[in-house]
Design a protein that fits this description.
mainly alpha, GMP Synthetase, Chain A, domain 3, 2 domains, 6 helices
Protein backbone atom coordinates (compact mmCIF):
# COMPACT_ATOMS: atom_id res chain seq x y z
CA UNK A 1 0.00 0.00 0.00
CA UNK A 2 1.39 3.36 -0.95
CA UNK A 3 1.01 6.46 1.19
CA UNK A 4 -0.14 9.62 -0.50
CA UNK A 5 2.33 12.26 0.67
CA UNK A 6 0.76 15.00 -1.38
CA UNK A 7 -0.31 18.14 0.43
CA UNK A 8 -4.03 18.72 1.00
CA UNK A 9 -5.71 20.95 -1.55
CA UNK A 10 -5.85 24.59 -0.55
CA UNK A 11 -7.62 27.26 -2.46
CA UNK A 12 -5.37 30.06 -3.63
CA UNK A 13 -6.20 33.48 -2.29
CA UNK A 14 -6.41 35.32 0.98
CA UNK A 15 -8.93 33.01 2.63
CA UNK A 16 -12.51 34.03 3.24
CA UNK A 17 -14.56 35.81 0.62
CA UNK A 18 -17.04 38.46 1.66
CA UNK A 19 -20.60 37.26 1.34
CA UNK A 20 -21.45 40.45 -0.54
CA UNK A 21 -19.14 39.34 -3.37
CA UNK A 22 -21.68 36.76 -4.55
CA UNK A 23 -24.24 37.83 -7.20
CA UNK A 24 -27.66 37.59 -5.53
CA UNK A 25 -26.36 38.64 -2.14
CA UNK A 26 -24.44 41.55 -3.64
CA UNK A 27 -27.60 42.73 -5.40
CA UNK A 28 -29.60 42.41 -2.18
CA UNK A 29 -26.95 44.34 -0.22
CA UNK A 30 -26.89 47.07 -2.88
CA UNK A 31 -30.70 47.36 -2.81
CA UNK A 32 -30.66 47.57 1.00
CA UNK A 33 -28.06 50.38 0.88
CA UNK A 34 -30.13 52.26 -1.73
CA UNK A 35 -33.33 51.92 0.33
CA UNK A 36 -31.52 53.03 3.48
CA UNK A 37 -30.17 56.13 1.73
CA UNK A 38 -33.64 56.90 0.35
CA UNK A 39 -35.14 56.41 3.82
CA UNK A 40 -32.73 58.94 5.33
CA UNK A 41 -33.34 61.46 2.53
CA UNK A 42 -37.14 61.20 2.68
CA UNK A 43 -37.50 61.23 6.46
CA UNK A 44 -35.08 64.16 6.79
CA UNK A 45 -37.69 66.46 5.24
CA UNK A 46 -40.49 65.34 7.60
CA UNK A 47 -41.43 67.27 10.75
CA UNK A 48 -39.60 66.12 13.85
CA UNK A 49 -42.14 63.98 15.72
CA UNK A 50 -43.13 62.20 12.52
CA UNK A 51 -39.53 61.68 11.37
CA UNK A 52 -38.64 59.54 14.41
CA UNK A 53 -41.78 57.41 14.33
CA UNK A 54 -42.36 56.44 10.70
CA UNK A 55 -40.13 54.25 8.56
CA UNK A 56 -39.65 54.03 4.82
CA UNK A 57 -40.20 50.39 3.86
CA UNK A 58 -39.86 50.02 0.10
CA UNK A 59 -40.13 51.48 -3.39
CA UNK A 60 -42.33 49.23 -5.51
CA UNK A 61 -43.98 49.96 -8.87
CA UNK A 62 -43.56 53.71 -8.46
CA UNK A 63 -45.00 53.72 -4.93
CA UNK A 64 -43.09 54.86 -1.89
CA UNK A 65 -44.23 52.61 0.95
CA UNK A 66 -44.00 53.84 4.52
CA UNK A 67 -44.85 52.19 7.84
CA UNK A 68 -46.50 54.20 10.61
CA UNK A 69 -47.18 52.98 14.16
CA UNK A 70 -50.70 54.43 14.35
CA UNK A 71 -53.55 55.52 12.04
CA UNK A 72 -53.15 59.13 13.18
CA UNK A 73 -49.48 59.24 12.16
CA UNK A 74 -50.34 57.48 8.89
CA UNK A 75 -52.89 60.21 8.12
CA UNK A 76 -50.36 62.95 8.92
CA UNK A 77 -47.83 61.30 6.61
CA UNK A 78 -50.38 61.04 3.79
CA UNK A 79 -50.97 64.78 4.05
CA UNK A 80 -47.27 65.29 3.25
CA UNK A 81 -47.41 63.19 0.06
CA UNK A 82 -46.60 66.11 -2.26
CA UNK A 83 -43.54 67.07 -0.21
CA UNK A 84 -42.35 63.43 -0.04
CA UNK A 85 -42.72 62.93 -3.82
CA UNK A 86 -40.84 66.18 -4.51
CA UNK A 87 -38.00 65.04 -2.25
CA UNK A 88 -37.88 61.66 -3.99
CA UNK A 89 -37.61 63.36 -7.39
CA UNK A 90 -34.89 65.65 -6.05
CA UNK A 91 -32.74 62.65 -5.07
CA UNK A 92 -33.33 60.92 -8.42
CA UNK A 93 -36.09 58.48 -7.50
CA UNK A 94 -39.22 58.29 -9.61
CA UNK A 95 -42.37 57.72 -7.61
CA UNK A 96 -45.95 58.55 -8.44
CA UNK A 97 -47.62 57.88 -5.09
CA UNK A 98 -47.11 57.35 -1.38
CA UNK A 99 -48.63 54.39 0.42
CA UNK A 100 -48.69 54.34 4.21
CA UNK A 101 -49.36 51.12 6.07
CA UNK A 102 -50.16 51.03 9.76
CA UNK A 103 -47.77 48.63 11.45
CA UNK A 104 -47.83 48.94 15.22
CA UNK A 105 -44.44 48.44 16.83
CA UNK A 106 -43.77 44.94 18.05
CA UNK A 107 -44.45 44.54 21.75
CA UNK A 108 -41.32 44.56 23.81
CA UNK A 109 -40.65 41.32 25.56
CA UNK A 110 -41.26 41.61 29.28
CA UNK A 111 -38.45 39.91 31.09
CA UNK A 112 -39.39 38.97 34.63
CA UNK A 113 -37.20 40.46 37.30
CA UNK A 114 -35.27 37.47 38.55
CA UNK A 115 -33.54 39.50 41.23
CA UNK A 116 -36.63 39.89 43.43
CA UNK A 117 -35.88 38.31 46.78
CA UNK A 118 -38.21 35.81 48.39
CA UNK A 119 -39.88 37.12 51.53
CA UNK A 120 -39.34 35.62 54.95
CA UNK A 121 -42.95 34.34 54.82
CA UNK A 122 -42.25 32.59 51.51
CA UNK A 123 -39.24 30.92 53.11
CA UNK A 124 -41.42 29.73 56.00
CA UNK A 125 -43.99 28.29 53.60
CA UNK A 126 -41.26 26.51 51.64
CA UNK A 127 -39.85 24.96 54.83
CA UNK A 128 -43.36 23.82 55.81
CA UNK A 129 -43.84 22.27 52.37
CA UNK A 130 -40.48 20.49 52.71
CA UNK A 131 -41.51 19.09 56.10
CA UNK A 132 -44.81 17.80 54.73
CA UNK A 133 -43.45 15.94 51.71
CA UNK A 134 -42.17 12.37 51.72
CA UNK A 135 -40.11 12.73 48.54
CA UNK A 136 -36.49 13.40 49.62
CA UNK A 137 -35.55 15.10 46.30
CA UNK A 138 -38.54 17.45 46.47
CA UNK A 139 -37.83 18.15 50.15
CA UNK A 140 -34.25 19.12 49.25
CA UNK A 141 -35.46 21.47 46.51
CA UNK A 142 -37.94 23.19 48.87
CA UNK A 143 -35.20 23.63 51.50
CA UNK A 144 -32.81 25.00 48.90
CA UNK A 145 -35.39 27.59 47.86
CA UNK A 146 -36.09 28.41 51.51
CA UNK A 147 -32.39 29.05 52.06
CA UNK A 148 -32.41 31.57 49.22
CA UNK A 149 -35.25 33.40 50.96
CA UNK A 150 -33.26 33.52 54.19
CA UNK A 151 -30.16 34.85 52.44
CA UNK A 152 -32.10 37.49 50.54
CA UNK A 153 -33.85 38.71 53.70
CA UNK A 154 -30.64 39.16 55.65
CA UNK A 155 -29.14 42.61 55.88
CA UNK A 156 -25.46 43.36 55.23
CA UNK A 157 -24.69 43.32 58.97
CA UNK A 158 -26.03 39.74 59.25
CA UNK A 159 -29.34 40.58 60.98
CA UNK A 160 -32.66 39.44 59.53
Amino acid sequence: MQHDNSKPYRRAGSGLTAVTAFGPIAALARKARELDALDRALRQTLPSPLREQVRFANLRDGRLIFLAPSPALAARLRLLQTQILATARAVGTYASSVTVKVAPPLPTEIVPDRSKPLSHAAGSHLRAAAASTTDPELRELFLELASVAEVSDSKPDGKV
